[in-house]
Amino acid sequence: MPKQPRRDSKPHPPRRPTPAALNLSGFEAASLVKFAYFTDRAPVPGTLLYTAFRRNMPPGVKEFAVRTPVTFFYGIQQTGGLLNIQVRWINPDGVVTRTSDLPMDQSQEGALWTWQVDRLEKRDLAQAGVWVVELLISGHRVGRYPLLVRA
Known about the structure:
Blueprint: H1 26-30, E1 33-39, E2 63-65, E3 70-77, E4 82-83, E5 85-90, E6 96-101, E7 104-105, E8 113-120, E9 129-137, E10 140-150
Parallel strand pairs: 2-10
Antiparallel strand pairs: 1-3, 3-8, 4-7, 5-6, 5-9, 9-10
């Protein structure tokens, strides 16, 4: 006997297919970055943030102690499409210690911009010196952000 759907169950809406990633020039990609900085307090996912007067934005932090978790926080202007975003953490020796691929699908967003974070855990931040985070959009490096880590 075939299974019958329960009468009280609601049908699931059809899933919208993921759009193809936008293919941007380096200039177009760079112009999308609204802000990017380091913080020790990432916003709760889904929080609506207000950049005017930095009302509820997380505080910017310029330096951290070794073995302290660090959050790279950035905002991207609305595109209406899918962006391929990559974050690279580079240690003081110039070695990429971590790469995060963080696609951002703005095809269903109504906001003027979208924020995202990438976090380096305390076990990974083991070396004192100047670290650098590179932000890439559509394969183009759109920013290099230095971070001082003290022993």
